[in-house]
């Protein structure tokens, strides 16, 4: 099992803020919109440096999506910012009609996704957003794993013509991916080559998968760990190549088990090579108040949950 | 400038032709929305044959020209006919309205690439936001042209309209001319019965807009109303034109009732309607 050294923990939302600021400096067509959460989204540096290209919308997310769709007309690339819940469920129809169906080049950037928002509780902890966005034709769905990758993804989606949902979070997590990485939309990242099981993880669960990989190595299990930062379009080639080698799959995500990464991977497997798969995901429930760590433990999203899922799936493979 | 710039007499003839197209289009597929389309015909004809600066050589970004957005997308027949009659595509294509594999979807869409359409609409309440965003980018791009958007009166029951109304005033989006089609009707009955709108003048003025009113079925008042709206742009406030129309205008049995909101005429009713919509040089598709 490879080591993944890091010097500091950072929040993925700050990676978004850093990426947006860099984009502002390199691409005059980038505009930012925020619904009264500029500090939380880390858009304040962009706002300060490019006030003429930043639009404060107030607490009006539906309007923000419509504005962003309109702002593409004339050649601008709008990045909208609010919490993941208010970026998706609250404005699903606005995204569906004015952005996705209309093929608009809007980047919907969503912080505080999943349980790790913590104490605010279930009203703010959306666990359904990947599923909702995946279902929309034309939509690209990305959930990077750390600060560096979120920054790289933010910069990369500006070069991609079409609507994108970029999902990130609030807690600090180990910043272990390279600062100079080239982010390729739709291209899975091999983290650790293995032979016994394929662990496909996204977002904050990527680091948990690495922790699980070390525990599994001590148990003599050689796990292949792949970071699926792009959930749509999914990297079917990487999934099938790994599944063919290991013969069993665990998916790990900070999302409901319905509609997220697990289902995206399962769709690829059942149509091509139906090997056993176990889900590490929230089991069709809402979240609640608590610290991020407490919630990840209660809802089964820790490295130990990944280890248990690996042991289950290997026993099914050998069954 | 406007590529047609017709006289009022010519506009009347064009409007009658557009109304003929509308009733024939909805009749042909026994579906669609003739009432609001007929009521707003004079507005569309005014914009595309007199008021707006645009090119029929369509491009999505629309830099250097005025933009129009239709928020109440169900009155697509009047828009499609107007676009075809002003040269965006062949009028023969109107025969494909609402049919399989057509660019003329039941509600306007960009997916099939119909020239003249810049955003899908149909799910109500979204167009004012879109138009406001497009207007702000015109300013950012140093483009002095204007953005027009039409909404229905029942449509303002959608909350997003008021989010956009508050935003456009706050951000001083003064290159935007919104119009509400005040026909007093919606699907379940009159707006008074279904959801009282109160004074839209007072509401939009309170939100910080310049509010004008015009008769939308009379070119002698509508053209000056639109010209006045243009004159009010650039003064720090978004402009609202409250346009009084009669649903079904031009076809007597369709007028003044919500019943023709989304119902097509039968063969006999079509013939009566066409007899009432006489054109000097009819050129039905």
Automatic annotation (TrEMBL), chain A:
InterPro entries: PDH/Transketolase, THDP-binding, Transketo_C/PFOR_II, Transketolase-like_Pyr-bd, Transketolase_C. CDD domains: TPP_PYR_DXS_TK_like. It holds the Pfam family Transket_pyr. Its cofactor is thiamine diphosphate. Keywords: Thiamine pyrophosphate. Residues 10-175 form the Transketolase-like pyrimidine-binding domain. PANTHER family: PYRUVATE DEHYDROGENASE E1 COMPONENT, TRANSKETOLASE-LIKE PYRIMIDINE-BINDING DOMAIN-CONTAINING PROTEIN. Belongs to the transketolase family. This is Transketolase family protein.
Automatic annotation (TrEMBL), chain B:
The keyword Cell division does not apply. Signal peptide: none annotated. Transmembrane segments: none annotated. CDD domains: TPP_TK. Pfam families: Transketolase_N (PF00456). Its cofactor is thiamine diphosphate. Keywords: Thiamine pyrophosphate. InterPro entries: THDP-binding (IPR029061), Transketolase_N (IPR005474). It comes from the Bacteria. Residues 14-276 form the Transketolase N-terminal domain. Belongs to the transketolase family. This is Transketolase. It comes from Pontibacter burrus.
């Amino acid at each position: 099992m490879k080591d993944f050294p890091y010097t500091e923990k950072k929040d993925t939302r700050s990676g978004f803020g850093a990426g947006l600021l860099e984009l502002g400096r390199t691409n005059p067509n980038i505009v930012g919109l925020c619904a009264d959460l500029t500090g939380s989204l880390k858009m304040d540096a962009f706002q300060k440096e490019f006030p003429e290209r930043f639009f404060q919308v107030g607490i009006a997310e539906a309007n923000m999506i419509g504005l962003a769709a309109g702002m593409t007309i004339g050649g601008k690339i709008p990045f909208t910012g609010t919490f993941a819940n208010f970026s998706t469920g609250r404005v699903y129809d606005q995204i569906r009609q004015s952005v996705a169906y209309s093929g608009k080049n809007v980047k919907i950037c969503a912080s505080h996704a999943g349980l790790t928002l913590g104490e605010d509780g279930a009203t703010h902890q959306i666990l359904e957003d990947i599923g909702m966005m995946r279902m929309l034709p034309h939509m690209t769905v990305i959930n990077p794993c750390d600060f560096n990758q979120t920054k790289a993804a933010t910069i990369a989606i500006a070069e991609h013509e079409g609507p994108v949902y970029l999902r990130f979070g609030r807690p600090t997590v180990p910043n272990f991916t390279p600062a100079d990485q080239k982010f390729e939309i739709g291209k899975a990242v091999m983290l650790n080559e293995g032979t016994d099981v394929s662990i496909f993880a996204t977002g904050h669960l990527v680091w948990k998968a690495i922790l699980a990989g070390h525990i599994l190595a001590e148990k003599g299990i050689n796990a292949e760990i792949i970071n699926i930062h792009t959930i749509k379009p999914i990297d079917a080639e990487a999934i099938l190549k790994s599944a063919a080698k290991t013969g069993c799959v665990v998916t790990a995500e900070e999302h409901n088990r319905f509609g997220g990464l697990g289902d995206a991977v399962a769709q690829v497997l059942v149509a091509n090579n139906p090997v056993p798969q176990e889900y590490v995901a929230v089991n069709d429930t809402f979240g609640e108040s608590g610290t991020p760590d407490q919630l990840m433990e209660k809802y089964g999203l820790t490295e130990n949950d990944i280890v248990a899922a690996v042991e289950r799936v290997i026993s099914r493979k050998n069954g | 400038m406007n590529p047609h710039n017709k006289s009022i007499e010519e506009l009347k003839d064009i409007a009658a032709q557009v109304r003929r197209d509308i009733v024939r289009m909805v009749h042909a597929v026994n579906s669609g929305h003739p009432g609001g389309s007929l009521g707003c015909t004079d507005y569309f004809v005014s914009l595309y044959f007199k008021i707006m600066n645009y090119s029929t050589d369509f491009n999505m970004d629309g830099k250097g020209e005025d933009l129009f957005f239709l928020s109440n997308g169900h009155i697509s027949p009047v828009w499609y006919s107007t676009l075809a009659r002003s040269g965006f595509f062949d009028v023969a294509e109107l025969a494909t309205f609402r049919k399989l594999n057509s660019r003329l979807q039941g509600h306007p869409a960009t997916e099939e690439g119909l020239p003249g359409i810049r955003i899908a609409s149909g799910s109500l309440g979204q167009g004012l936001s879109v138009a406001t965003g497009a207007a702000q980018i015109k300013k950012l791009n140093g483009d002095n042209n204007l953005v027009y958007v039409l909404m229905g009166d029942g449509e303002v029951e959608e909350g997003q309209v008021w989010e956009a109304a508050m935003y456009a005033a706050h951000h001083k989006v003064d290159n935007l001319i919104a119009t509400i089609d005040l026909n007093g009707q919606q699907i379940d009955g009159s707006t008074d019965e279904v959801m009282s709108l109160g004074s839209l003048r007072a509401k939009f003025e309170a939100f910080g807009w310049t509010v004008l009113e015009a008769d939308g079925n009379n070119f002698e008042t509508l053209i000056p109303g639109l010209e006045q709206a243009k004159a009010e742009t650039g003064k720090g406030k978004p402009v609202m034109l409250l346009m009084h129309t009669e649903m079904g205008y031009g076809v007597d049995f369709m007028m003044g009732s919500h019943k023709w909101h989304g119902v097509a005429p039968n063969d006999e009713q079509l013939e009566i309607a066409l007899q009432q919509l006489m054109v000097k040089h009819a050129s039905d598709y």
